[in-house]
Predict the structure.
Amino acid sequence: MRIFIGFLLTALSFTVFASGIDPEALALLDKMEKVYDPSGKGKEVKSKIVEMEMMIPGQNIKMNLTQYYKVPFNLKIKTRLPGIMEMENGFDGKTAWEYNKAMGGRELTGKELDSFKFGAVLENPSLKLQDICSDIKFDKNGGKVDGVECVKLICTPKPEYNTAAFSVWISPNDSLMRKMEMTSVTQMGEVPSVTIYRDIRKKNDILVPCEQEVTMMNVSMKSIITKIEFNKEISDSEFKMPEGAPVTPTVPAPDAAGKNSAK
């Protein structure tokens, strides 16, 4: 199972100056940037290490996740189910991979590679939304998230990312991002996910959603950030597949029609 922490710092990058964007959206996004990062600390973030606890309510399952990120696009996620399973997913700026001791390593290709790479792109706090999206639509009738009225932004990534559109919900009264819907691609195919952001508070003068509820494949998971460190030294080797790992042949992920995709 691959879980993206996703959008932890992306809120800092939502200032949009591209043409064709509703003026109301521009005003809201400008407010949002000032709310999340009033002192501009986000631009100083070159790396981060995030530790999280993830629980599946009703199933008595607890996992520990550690995310490593380093500019510009290095990302690794370690998932541990104590006594049962450990898995790593990584991207070193060129190659994306997954690894566990039981199955060995597997290099991601095709849409799986595009999906994981885009996750790394979203983590870069210096990239603005207009840098990675070719189209952003504004819907003032976004509905409620956790009882709070929101507007909705429908964001289409640039063609070079080969990634489906995603949507975010922002509450205009306080300029906080409350929800995100996106589709990732795994070995099982396209996997839609919904993330609700809660307990948004300051870490190093930057607002961070310390609690998230992620729903995918009809399973809801609650995650809580227990520790976050900015600008810690992280070696480039951290993002490489473990040396000497046996490589499992990759079967291209099926597309929406159930056919295998390949580049």
